[in-house]
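Q: What structure does this chain adopt?
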Amino acid sequence: MAVTTSAAATNPRQRERRRRRNIALLFVLPALLLLGALVVYPVVFSAGRSLFDASGERFVGGENYSEIFRDPATLKAIRNSTIWVVVAPLLLTGLGLVLAVLTEKVRWATAFKLVLFLPMAVSFLAAGIIFRLTYEEDPNRGVLNAVAVGVHDTFDDRSAYPTARARDGQGLTEQPGGAYGTTDTVTPGTSVSLGFVGVAPDKMPSGARPAQAAASTAAADDEVRGVVYLDFTPGGGGKPGTVDPAEKGLPGISVEAVRDGQVAAKATTAANGSFNISQLPAGSYTIRLPAENFAAPYQGISWLGPALVTPAIIGAYLWIWTGFSMVLIGAGLAALPRDVLEAARMDGATELQIFRKITVPLLAPVLTVVFVTLVINVMKVFDLVYIIAPGPVQEEAGVLATRMWLVSFGGGNNQGLGSALSMLLLLLVVPAMIFNVRRFRRSGA
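A:
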């Protein structure tokens, strides 16, 4: 009788548990179907497709996987992905930690965090376009190079005549390095007229004056006089090699008297282009106009060139994700026991010692989660690389995700190799994901 009563009591409990399990399964079923359709099926299909050739008709086994490590472009992508995984998460975690600690001491901490977190609201497409323009090499368009050129020109005077060139047949010869020198030597007591072309009238310095008066001035016995002028008459007319009334001098040009390869004396042209090199010993000299008079203007840094394109894109990634890292680490920092920090201060510990020996060790679990999450994210980075890197350096900046897309859809049309690359990317991401899930479970327990 007792056994029958116990069984009767058990059956309703079992039925209730079964009913609850069925209800839970009913609610979870749509998510499972979506997971299967959007995750499981593509993974299984890609794994199978990676074993076939580009056409998908011939079984090639592991040939696509071996091709990954024979293709130079794919090896560059693996190298760049390694750089991303090593550099970006470390920098982001470090920046987030430092900013989270510093914002605790700022009066307007909430506003500061909001400003740093705002880039997370910008799509990677928009961020890529923003930084593509920011890194533009033309200083008239690229912000960074505009700043770089401004700073450079503050400390190093730029040439006023980068496009100037000597008129042919007028006694000037271009020398190695871009300098110009007189074809024939001159002696003290003579005057020379050095005509140039290639300077647009609107590019002439505002203080330039007519050169004719300077050309008519005679030289003393111990000096060489001359004029450097624009041998071009606006509106036409004029005679080549002759200083005409409407032709202006080129002010600010450095002129040197060279003898036996050594500079004996130098001068700078005045507003009308005239110069006077005085107190010259007797002898023969070459009049030289150094290359810096005609050097091309400083154009800044080639941010998107082969050498700097990957660091430049990582910089854009840091701009977007620094706020994310700071907010997560800041949340962990807010949960730290304040009595420990106050006790350390009362014992005489400096803020740096507290940061190194107390704050960082206590935040280690949070820092680990942030770091691993960022590792997973950078392994999949695609948008920024594809948008920011110009076409000629796409291969130099490519990562596994961009290489996978280019091989499969961007002209390679080899979805077998592309599927193999996707499986390699999955194998690299899964361990980090498992590690993160276990960390979350342990922290929840």
